[in-house]
Write a structure and sequence with these properties.
mainly alpha
Amino acid sequence: MGKSQRLVDAVSRSPILWGLAVSAGFYALIHAELLGKTFLQRYCAGHPVAYIETVMFFIGLASLILKGLDLAAQSATLERSPLGTLAKPTAAPDTARTLLERIDRLGAGRQRGYYVGRVREALEHVVARGSADSLDDELKYLADVVVGRVHASYSLFRVVLWAIPILGFLGTEIGITTALNGVDLQAPDQSMVHVLTGLGLKFDTTALALTLS
């Protein structure tokens, strides 16, 4: 796979890019009032904090959807072996080299899968050692490595899941500050408007954060 192809593949599988694209479309519909004057305008477009919360939500959602599609595609490929069959048995290193050549001929998407990746690393171990005697221990090690990779692949989603409630808390603080700064004993009526606006911001951003979380 060339550099340009890898770049296109990385961009097409980027949850940040897809999340931002969906967010742009969502807010375009809101500001064009194509969704009508609903509660979405109040809760999702009422304050910069609400914008950030919503964008983070779509990025996290895109991360899960892309992960689900990837796992579904990998599961579908498990129905057929990536190695094929051998005409006749040979020494383990020679067999491993033959099978590695077959894996190299697979499509880029299938080579990226967890199963094919583990098979490749196991075959490379056999070639490097010149024997399959320690293959059982290597397979256990590779299984642990894959578990770590899978856990790390959800890091962006975990950041989003952590950030949205924090943003809700930030909106709460901004709302309370706005309410307190709006207090003016010389003009109680106008002061009440500022206080209620600040409290409204506090509850709106908190409610949105809890809902999206």
